[in-house]
Amino acid sequence: MTNVVPSRTHNLASLEDEVQAQLKRQRIGSSVEHVSENDIGRLSAEAVLSQYEAAAKAVEGMGEEIKDRIQRLEDALKECDKDMHTVEEAAKAIREKGKLVYMQIQEASGVSDAIRNACAEFHKKVSA
Predict the structure, then answer these.
(1) What is the pTM assigned to this prediction?
(2) Which pLDDT belongs to residue 46?
(3) Total count of domains within the chain
(4) Which of 5, 85, 91, 92 is 20 to 30 A from 54 (CA-CA)?
(5) Do 43 and 22 form a contact (C-beta atoms < 8 A)?
(6) Quick check: 49 and 34 in contact, CB under 8 A?
(7) Is residue 1 in some structural domain?
(8) Could you tell me which of 8, 10, 15, 13 has the C-alpha nearest to residue 43?
(9) How far apart are CA 124 and CA 84, in angstroms?
């Protein structure tokens, strides 16, 4: 806001016109109502009010940014949940594969024992 400083050439009517023009350019908050007859006081109050309004809008802007970050975090958490499900499924598949390989090794070991025993019996028969 520009300050209205009367010069020697200003008369009271032109000063009042300047103040009225500035008032039209400025927006007073809808939650307040000017109660004084003093235009200088009203201008000061409106200047302060506009600063508070700007601060309130900045805080609201921060709130919107926080909402956006919360949404991004929720999206990331959903993605992490999907990833954790994939990890759990992979771990389950690895365990099942491990059991299968274990059984194959046990079976191969049994077959190897049977072959070894058969070879030993055959060797005894051939040697005797």
Answers:
(1) 0.46
(2) 86
(3) 1
(4) 5
(5) yes
(6) no
(7) no
(8) 15
(9) 59
The answer to whether position 58 is within a domain reads yes
pLDDT per residue as tens digits for the range 47-76: 899 999 999 999 999 999 999 999 999 999
Q: Band of the pLDDT at 7, cuts 50, 70, 90?
A: very low
Q: Does 6 have pLDDT greater than 70?
A: no
Amino acid at 42: R
Distance, CA of 128 to CA of 125 (rounded, Å)? 5
- In a domain, residue 109? The reply is yes
Tokens of 58: 């900045």
Half-sphere exposure in the Cβ direction for 4 (13 Å, CA): 20
Domain that holds residue 99: 12-127
Token pair belonging to 10: 């200003």
